[in-house]
Amino acid sequence: MKRIVYKEDNIDLKFIKKILDENGIIIYPTDTVYGVGASLKSLEGIEKIYKAKERAFNSPLIALLSKVEYVEKVAIVDEEKKEIVVKLAEKFWPGALTIILNKRNSVPDIMVSGGQTVGVRIPALKLAQYIIESVGGVLPTTSANISGESTPRSYEELNEIFKERVDIIIDGGKSPLGVESTIIDLTKDVPKILREGAIKKEAIEKLIGKI
Known about the structure:
Largest sheet: 11 strands, mixed
CATH topology: DHBP synthase
Structural class: alpha/beta
CATH class: Alpha Beta
Number of domains: 1
Helix content: 25-40%
Shape: globular
Strand content: 15-25%
Number of strands: 11
């Protein structure tokens, strides 16, 4: 099909859902950087993301959510970690914090490289939230770039070759932060920062203690 480009003030959410339900993939802006996403129910769509990025299947995607209640759709919040998850969510969501949790069976193996965990995040950009909500509140996503290249922080920075490999592109201008999210793993006994991004380790430690 012909690639469709929407401006942020003129998007068709029903059509976007239709295309993603039919195994399409979408480039869209988030608060951090531009992402590429596919339907959680579409193994073919998720596979298209890896092919578009020229990326090995051993690099997992994360689940971007439109609302905090959707965490339970894809992840298991262990009772002993629930207090930490709640604190982090209340302080940093919507925002640039990805939390790694044990996954539910609803998350396909291809999305998480056959692993047992999944990263979840709520972007602090209304446009992204609307798109994610339109497809059921969960959108498997990764950065919208060919592996090894710079992560795009604006529509103008998107790789022209990469743009040809997707079905829909949302031109949302420049991402507000332009910095990737911080990733914290809560699946082990002690929380661990896997990547320090927009949210600093010190801010997290101030909330949940030394990690």
